[in-house]
Amino acid sequence: MAIARFEKDPDAKLDFVIDWADWLATGDTISASTWTVPSGITKESDTHGDDTATIWISGGTARTDYTLTNKVTTAAGRIDERSIIIRVRNR
Known about the structure:
about 60% strand; three-stranded antiparallel beta sheet; four-stranded mixed beta sheet; elongated; 7 strands
């Protein structure tokens, strides 16, 4: 699976979602979700549902790319992680 790339303005505060539905086994759900965020960009908050993980991001330096990683644990005990790239660009 390719790493998803998103673009945001340095002044924007936006949410980004990873959809885990295709990976989850039938009947399994996300029980915990953690995000690793590099310095230079700000995690405002994060949440998760049964099959998605959402992070709210602000800040960042224009013309800089940031890799954010989401690690989930499921009710059945499965653990996996996926990354997204946030490209900060003046719009």
